[in-house]
Automatic annotation (TrEMBL):
CDD domains the record matches: Eukaryotic_PFK
List of residues binding substrate: S193, I194, D195, R230, M237, G238, R239, E293, R321, H327, V328, Q329, R330
SUPFAM superfamilies reported for this sequence: Phosphofructokinase
Pathway annotation: Carbohydrate degradation; glycolysis; D-glyceraldehyde 3-phosphate and glycerone phosphate from D-glucose: step 3/4
Positions of ATP binding: R117, C118, G147, D148, G149, S150
Interdomain linker: annotated segments: 420-433
Function: Catalyzes the phosphorylation of D-fructose 6-phosphate to fructose 1,6-bisphosphate by ATP, the first committing step of glycolysis.
Protein name per its UniProtKB record: ATP-dependent 6-phosphofructokinase
Keywords: Allosteric enzyme, ATP-binding, Cytoplasm, Glycolysis, Kinase, Magnesium, Metal-binding, Nucleotide-binding, Transferase
Catalytic residues (UniProt): D195
Length: 816
């Protein structure tokens, strides 16, 4: 019998949450079809721990995923309460976990299994006691959720394991057989930290939720700041890492940001005050300055929020206020992104432990782009420590490089948008190129952030930027005007499309569009939108042989809640929609906590694309999700009803079923509701809810603001390069297929792909890609809902090494 255990511990200056899976001298007997990597007739012990100094939101989702995946492969799971302290103390701190014991955890922040400081674990005597408690239960695999200090401690524990067993045997606490059967300790780490300060992963568990807390406060502050014409200085967490400050500055369009990795140049006081003054002179009624708590100047003096406030008041006389967010950033409900990230990491951690051997180094499960990877734990820890060393030695460029591509890209994008590099308009470079920006298709949160970034980066590159209202319809009607730097101020936090957007395709109006491009001398197009934007770009590029005006660089940035664009794993707006679905499902599930025995049928948007339903179901803990891509019949519906009937016999007496709006033309939401109501009569009752357009509305999430900003900036940079390459004989002429591209996220990188090459990847009838990466998440969702299913491990992470010297980016690919 395989046994698993979970723990949370608290270390100096913070909390540590640990989570353990253990195998007590037994054979794996998987509940579902055997995983290719799970060796039968092999004794395994697995343990997961979170020794993070503080407990970030999303940790419970990781605990839930590891427990349920462990049970799925036939393991017996234990919680170890109070973290490393519980490991040292043993006894009642180690309790068996059941499937039901991790229900209702997804929406809860922190950790439900407790946390405590543990000085004893820092000593060998304490680790000896911990080892004894593990050996008594044959725990030989440890999964640690924490930061670099916690992971380093776990690795030390692993290195000492053999000597600890020898000492226990010499003291007579264990016998030869126990020492032999528990001779190896395997470790897999998951990084839980709101600071995102761990090298080797793009995002750590809890970071996105912390950004949600920050942006909620910033959005609220901006309304009062604008009313009173105030300057606000916001201090956010980040003693050694400026990720939260940097990304929140990008997401809210802050005027200035201070981060530890890149102190401001000498004379920053005058530069900052000049920029704030210029902003007010252009009509802005507020200024936002964001300060990471560990920010310093080039001479090592702290740059505090009070210091910045005093400077602004003294030099400019602006009414200035300070807001210190503090621990509110660590609390609250985890975001959809963090729940999905933690669930994917938890399952990946179990797979890594199943595959571990005597020669396998301790590894950490990381996220690079949209792909889970495994990296040697100590390589990541060493690089993380090198960042601090570089900062201490004032090698700030090196510190930024060591933080990784994601951090570097965020910083470079912020610099592009900062407007600092040109002290006056006259000193900006000027080109002879005119670039038009338009939104096409249904509105999606984050479109405005993308337009803002495109306009400002375009102006920075020296172009004259034009805004087209109401998509292609406004284009052929001549609704085109120049748009300036100040015109897009405050756009990042606005939902919908301020430019206006329609679904009209250009095919029937090509003559008029070509005429408008000639009238306004448009040299390049940036189209931000959904499936209509993709089809529209195809029509424009196909008409180049008939209209020379269309022989210009064209690029599309995907922006749709449906996330149904070929060539891109993610689209602007889909994260905001997922959070709307997840928040609504949380409230609906809570409403059933008192009534019991109730099943909710919820319809989501997405057209024929089941992304929102599937990933929303994973984030909300759905029991079943119906989508078009996975056909179902009446027998499947009956099996799902029976599954819920069995569930009602447990302590979890509620159900959640999601249905994509076009999943089946006959099995409508009303039909499913009526079927469940009839078949569940006497066992449970049903309610239905159609979420509708609330999924398109609301303020964009931090992810969509940041993603839209970075993608649009890259698109404009591509336009600049392509314009330069195609400018010959005094005019722009671009008619090759690689000058009409879609910029999409593919696994680990942003890739410019000719739209003509994406035709074969597209199901035009149903408006979806023929292959969709997220379908591999469906077995994971079913496993966590206690269905017996097979799980494809072909796409699971493989052990790699931390990359220190990266290849140069090409014109078609770039980091995210």
């Amino acid at each position: 019998m395989t046994r698993l255990a979970t723990e949370t511990c608290h270390r100096k200056n913070g909390a540590v949450s640990s989570f353990k899976l253990t195998d007590l001298n037994s054979v794996f007997q998987p509940v579902g079809p055997r995983l290719p990597c799970s060796p039968l007739n092999t004794t395994r012990s697995q343990t997961t721990a979170d020794p993070s100094p503080f407990l970030p939101p999303g940790m419970n989702a990781a605990v839930r995923a590891v427990v349920r995946m462990g049970i799925y492969v036939g393991a017996k799971v234990y919680f170890i309460h109070e973290g490393y302290q519980g490991m040292v103390d043993g006894g009642d701190n180690i309790k068996e976990a059941t499937w039901e014991s991790v229900s209702s955890m997804l929406q809860v922040g922190g950790t439900v299994i407790g946390s405590a400081r543990c000085k004893e674990f820092r000593s060998r005597e304490g680790r000896l006691r911990a080892a004894h408690n593990l050996v008594k239960r044959s725990i030989t695999n440890l999964c640690v959720i924490g930061g670099d200090g916690s992971l380093t401690g776990a690795n030390l524990f692993r290195e000492e394991w053999s000597s600890l067993l020898d000492e226990l045997r010499q003291q007579g606490l264990i016998d030869e057989e126990a020492a032999r059967s528990n001779s190896e300790l395997h470790i897999v780490g998951m990084v839980g930290s709101i600071d995102n300060d761990f090298c080797g992963t793009d995002m750590t568990i809890g970071t996105d939720s912390a950004l949600h807390r920050i942006i909620e406060v910033v959005d609220a502050i901006m309304t009062t700041a604008q009313s009173h014409q105030r300057t606000f200085v916001l201090e956010v967490m980040g003693r050694h890492c400026g990720y939260l400050a940097l990304v929140s500055a990008l997401a809210c369009g802050a005027d200035w940001v201070f981060i530890p990795e890149m102190p401001p140049e000498d004379g920053w006081e005058d530069s900052m005050c000049q920029k704030l003054s210029e902003s007010r002179s252009r009509g802005s009624r507020l200024n936002i300055i964001i300060v990471a708590e560990g920010a310093m100047d080039r001479h090592g003096r702290p740059v505090t929020s009070d210091r910045v406030k005093d400077l602004v008041v003294r030099c400019l006389g602006f009414d200035t206020r300070v807001t210190i967010l503090g621990h509110v950033q660590r609390g609250g409900t985890p975001s959809a992104f963090d729940r999905i990230l933690a669930s994917r990491m938890g399952v990946e951690a179990v797979l890594a432990l199943l595959e571990a051997s005597a020669t396998t180094p301790a590894c950490v499960v990381s996220l690079v782009g949209n792909q889970a990877v495994r990296l040697p734990l100590m390589e990541c820890v060493q690089m993380t420590q090198e960042v601090q060393k570089a900062m201490d030695e004032k090698k700030f460029d090196e510190a930024v490089r060591l933080r990784g591509r994601s951090f570097e890209n965020n910083l470079s994008t912020y610099r592009l948008l900062s407007y600092r590099k040109f002290e006056s308009v006259s000193r900006r470079p000027q080109s002879s190129f005119n670039v038009a920006v338009l939104n096409v298709g249904a509105p999606a949160a984050g479109m405005n952030a993308a337009v803002r970034a495109a306009v400002r980066v375009g102006i920075t590159e020296g172009h004259k930027m034009f805004a087209v209202s109401d998509g292609f319809e406004g284009f052929y009607k001549g609704q085109i005007k120049e748009i300036k730097w100040g015109d897009v101020g405050g756009w990042t936090g606005q939902g919908g499309s301020l430019l206006g957007t329609k679904r009209t395709l250009p095919g029937k109006h090509l003559d008029k569009i070509a005429e408008q491009m000639r009238i306004h001398n448009i040299n390049a197009l940036l189209v931000i939108g959904g499936f209509e934007a993709y089809v529209g770009l195809l029509e424009l590029s196909s008409a180049r042989d008939r209209h020379s005006e269309l022989c210009v660089p064209m690029v599309m940035v995907p922006a749709t809640v449906s996330n149904n664009i070929p060539g891109s794993d993610l689209s602007i707006g889909s994260d905001t929609a997922l959070n709307a679905i997840t928040d609504t499902c949380d409230r609906i599930k809570q409403s059933a906590s008192g009534t019991k025995r109730r099943v909710f049928i919820i319809e989501t948007m997405g057209g024929y694309c089941g992304y929102l339903a599937t990933v929303g179901g994973l984030a909300a803990g759905a029991d079943t999700v119906y989508i078009y891509e996975e056909p179902f019949d009446i027998r499947d519906l009956q099996a799902n009803v029976e599954h819920l009937t069995q569930k009602m016999k447990t302590s979890i007496q509620r159900g959640l079923v999601l249905r994509n709006e076009n999943s089946n033309e006959n099995f409508t939401t009303d039909f499913v509701y009526q079927l469940y109501t009839e078949e569940g009569r006497g066992v449970f009752d049903c309610r239905k809810n159609i979420l509708g357009h609330m999924q398109q509305g609301g303020a964009p999430s931090p992810f969509d603001r940041n993603f839209g900003t970075k993608v649009a900036a890259k698109a404009i940079q591509w336009i600049t390069r392509t314009l330069t390459d195609s400018y010959k004989g005094g005019r722009v002429f671009a008619n090759s297929e690689d000058t009409a591209c879609l910029l999409g996220m593919r696994r680990r990188a942003m890739v410019f792909q000719p739209v003509s090459q994406l035709r074969d990847e597209t199901d035009f009838v149903h408006r979806i890609p023929k292959e969709q990466w997220w379908l591999k998440l469906r077995p994971l969702m079913k496993i966590l809902a206690k269905y017996k299913t097979s799980y494809d491990v072909s796409d699971s992470g493989q052990l790699e090494h931390v990359t220190r010297v990266r290849p140069r980016e090409s014109n078609t690919t770039s980091a995210i």
